[in-house]
């Protein structure tokens, strides 16, 4: 084909696909450049205080000290890993924190929840000011379902107003939208966020949120379509993450309590759908939690740590680099599993060089360095 004819055809295709090109760039901008947290811990609102992060670090270190022999047994007597985990707990015990006004707090009289909102917002401001707050923090408020909608919006609006206190929202502030059952609820959240920004004088787009995937309706709509993909794009750029809700999702499916786990096949299916929906959008993925806690006697600690190590590893191997924790004694195994995951896979001598694999390896090393698993010179 002559160059002139090829140039004309190329021009025709450029014109024909211009709209699709623009839409692709808008909807799928690619990965976010900032570091993703490796864990989120949920603290019931009435238990949150300005020193919560410090106390959680101390509790985690105490658990590690008390059960050091067990920790080493479970991690293959890796003393370098032990040192890295201990250092992380001493310097930055939490990556992300949610003050929970939803299931972890429960229904309360309005005056009681209003008081908890004020106290928690004030305590968070103190933690931010004294430098003990984690890099990411925020609240989970009650859902936009009809029975809890009024209370959830009241908590959200009051907390945001009190935290901002006439200024901008602090960097790292996020809110979690739970129990989403329709794309319309995501649109309503976008509307509410914009309204609050206008009324409170906040920067447009600064009130961002995560969608908690804990209902089957968020995965599969009544018409058979995958609603979570539509939810991501209905968020108008405000959605920062999709967080899997282990127990609500399992319960909605009728899975018996002893088998509700983030590695259940139904959980893996939901998360695979989430993963496909979020790919290329810059929206982060987070796995759920385990309620098998490492507290109590030695057998309970062993069971809790073994379970947590296995489940965190399960998440990481499937591309979920963040997950929930419910108790500070889970932090040692959160970081142990995460650090080991990156350190064990530094050797790439047996991996075939291929562009997509190279990109994945570069992303792997970057994540390992950002979370503290790898030193700067490692993986070069």
UniProtKB/TrEMBL annotation:
Recall the GO molecular function terms of this protein's record: lyase activity
Annotated protein name in UniProt: Aldolase/citrate lyase family protein
Sorted keywords for this record are: Lyase, Magnesium, Metal-binding
Species source reads Nocardioides aquiterrae
Name the coenzymes or cofactors required: Mg(2+)
Q: Which domain of life is it from?
A: Bacteria
Q: Does the keyword Lyase apply?
A: yes
Q: Known Gene3D superfamilies for this protein?
A: Phosphoenolpyruvate-binding domains (3.20.20.60)
List the PANTHER family hit by this protein, alphabetically. CITRATE LYASE SUBUNIT BETA, LYASE BETA SUBUNIT, PUTATIVE (AFU_ORTHOLOGUE AFUA_4G13030)-RELATED
